[in-house]
Design goal:
CATH class of the largest domain: Alpha Beta
Bound molecules: guanosine-5'-diphosphate, magnesium ion
Oligomer: single chain
Number of domains: 2
Number of helices: 10
Radius of gyration: 20 Å
Number of strands: 9
CATH superfamily of the largest domain: P-loop containing nucleotide triphosphate hydrolases
Strand order of the largest sheet: 2-3-1-4-5-6
CATH architecture of the largest domain: 3-Layer(aba) Sandwich
Strand content: 15-25%
């Protein structure tokens, strides 16, 4: 039996469903998702284990024209991951009429096709009543294989998995069979907290928040519980007030939602200690972006 393994990068504009598809393929949540663009800020890995293959799925930040240093590091990460992948999946939302932005991403992915398979994945098929719109098809490079699927319903996912299995290079597994992510506990805790902030806030807050985990250790009662302390940074005092909420109500809601997810993830109770601080312009500070692990 030949064993196949390789890296599969998912790229595309923000919000097309990259992280949702990675989670669906892995069968477990390894990347946070939200209805807000720019949810994913750095590479996240998810491992798809098959009988005779392993696909290391590389979730990437959305490609867009950068408006801050943070954006530039995000786009940089996406392009770098795509360039070093064995297979590139270019995701496009099927209901969507192409724009100038799509042309920029299309040009980039076409440039990758000389060195590796680049396939097009039309996402969110469940939102479509009729066939794929002409406008959407016009975007696709002729050579590419096209898959139309829904990560929400699972419809159309199987042919993609079958095709990946065939095209991956021969090689040993990169990860043990019971491992589906990089297992960076602090990063995961920070991401889950950030996801709950994205769910609970609007306008500029989702883009202005970053989360650092200062402490993650055994709880007071021993190894059956965990204690985590995190700081949520925003850029302005006014944002801090909003994020804390009246009598701390919003921060409390964020903490409760995050705690529920993290307890399910680790299978034990966790006490979460959340703090909000202001770090002016962190999105445009090189030192800060490095500190956060974004660059
Ligand atoms: P990303 O920015 O490309 O990683 O996109 P996300 O995975 O975060 O998804 C963006 C939004 O699209 C979220 O609200 C998802 O719930 C939604 N979404 C993703 N995949 C599907 C799908 O197959 N069908 C539908 N209806 N919504 C989806
Ligand atoms: Mg994402």
């Amino acid at each position: 039996m030949t064993y196949r393994s390789g890296f599969v990068a998912l790229v595309g504009k923000p919000n097309v469903g990259k992280s949702t598809l990675v989670n669906h393929l892995v069968g477990r949540k390894v990347a946070i998702t939200s209805a807000k663009p720019q949810t994913t800020r750095q590479r996240m890995l998810g491992v798809l284990h098959g009988e005779d293959f392993q696909a290391v799925l590389v979730d990437t930040p959305g490609m867009m024209s950068p408006k801050s240093k943070l954006h530039r590091t995000m786009v940089g990460a996406a392009t770098q991951e795509a360039r070093s992948a064995d297979v590139v999946l270019w995701l496009v939302e099927v209901t969507h009429t192409p724009t100038q932005e799509d042309e920029v991403v299309a040009k980039f992915v076409r440039g990758l096709a000389a060195d590796r398979p680049v396939w097009t994945v039309l996402t969110k098929r469940d939102k479509l009543r009729d066939g794929v719109p002409e406008a959407c098809l016009a975007l696709l490079p002729e050579s590419s294989q096209v898959f139309t699927l829904s990560a929400k319903t699972g419809e159309g996912v199987r042919p993609l998995v079958e095709a990946l299995k065939e095209v991956l290079p021969e090689g040993p597994p990169y990860f043990p069979v019971d491992q589906v992510s990089e297992q960076n506990d602090r990063l995961w805790m920070a991401e889950v907290i950030r996801e709950k902030v994205l769910m609970s806030t609007r306008q500029e807050i989702p883009h202005s928040v970053c989360v650092t985990v200062e402490e993650l250790r055994e709880g007071k009662s021993g190894p059956e519980s965990l204690y985590g302390r995190a700081i949520l940074y925003v850029e302005l005092d006014s944002q801090k007030r909003i994020l804390i909420g009246k009598n701390g109500a919003l921060l409390k809601k964020v903490g409760e939602k995050a705690r529920k997810d993290l307890e399910a993830h680790w299978g034990k109770p966790i006490y979460l200690d959340l703090w909000v601080k202001v770090k002016e312009d962190w999105r445009d500070r090189d030192d800060w972006l490095r500190f956060l692990g974004y660059s």
